[in-house]
Structure to design on (270 residues):
């Protein structure tokens, strides 16, 4: 029963701790949307694999609802930890937002908005809320609201390029694919226009250079998303990486060690 998800919401003092049906349902809808989004990310599918059934409901201020994840019919199960992986990932991302820690690059603006709307109205419509399982409890408070809004509003953007292996294309809904660079970010989400579908298909599994508008999250020097304007395959043997530069000019420092050579240059600059 460790995968049970409990949501608690305390209504405003003006309503004596109660919630309207509309406000309560809105919170639950956003919670389900966020859970489904994580489900699709973990399974790399366009449709969620889990349903959620109510196994406990209480009104004792705060209102409490306990959900049990169950696998949908006709779904290919990934393993005995199919549900656990999704549960853990959901709380990992939720905790990262609450603690202002880096979230996964797969978390796009649509999913972030579902997380934001979980706390929409905190301090007015409701006083406090939290989501928990047997191991983790995350407060959906003003801190959470501030942090998720910052992730949405404080993206830096610049035009540039990235090189990496092209993989994991999604042609349903938002047109996306992923590249896996040799250095820097582990992977970068690439949003492309429908007219680029054939070009994307032709280069799946190949090393490519993608150009477009690169988006950066606060305090990160690595792009997490690119709005693709152009794509071209490149020879992986000639791709730039720090590893390939190692040892390319072994005699460039003469009889000096690398550390002594750099120290000498610094002394000359000063």
């Amino acid at each position: 029963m460790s995968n049970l998800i409990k949501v608690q919401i305390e209504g405003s003092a003006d309503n004596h701790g109660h919630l309207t049906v509309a406000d309560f349902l809105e919170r639950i809808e956003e919670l389900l949307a966020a859970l489904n989004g994580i489900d699709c990310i973990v399974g790399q599918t366009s449709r969620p694999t889990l349903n959620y059934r109510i196994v406990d409901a209480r009104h004792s201020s705060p209102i409490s609802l306990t959900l049990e994840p169950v696998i949908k019919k006709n779904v290919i199960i990934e393993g005995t930890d199919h549900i656990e992986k999704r549960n853990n990932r959901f709380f990992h991302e939720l905790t990262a937002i609450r603690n202002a820690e880096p979230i996964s690059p797969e978390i796009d603006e649509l999913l972030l908005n579902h997380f934001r709307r979980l706390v929409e109205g905190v301090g007015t419509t409701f006083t406090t809320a939290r989501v928990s399982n047997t191991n983790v409890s995350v407060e959906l408070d003003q801190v959470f609201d501030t942090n998720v809004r910052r992730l949405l509003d404080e993206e830096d953007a610049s035009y540039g390029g990235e090189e990496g292996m092209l993989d994991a294309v999604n042609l349903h809904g938002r047109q996306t694919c992923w590249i896996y660079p040799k250095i820097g970010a582990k992977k970068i989400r690439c949003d492309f226009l429908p007219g680029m579908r054939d070009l994307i298909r032709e280069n799946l599994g190949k090393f490519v250079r993608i150009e477009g508008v690169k988006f950066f999250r606060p305090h990160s020097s690595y792009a997490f998303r690119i709005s693709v304007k152009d794509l071209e395959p490149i020879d992986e043997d000639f791709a730039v990486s720090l590893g390939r530069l190692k040892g390319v000019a072994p005699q460039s420092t003469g009889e000096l060690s690398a550390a002594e050579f750099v120290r000498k240059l610094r002394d000359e600059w000063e």
Remarks:
- The CA atoms of residues 249 and 258 lie 11 Å apart.
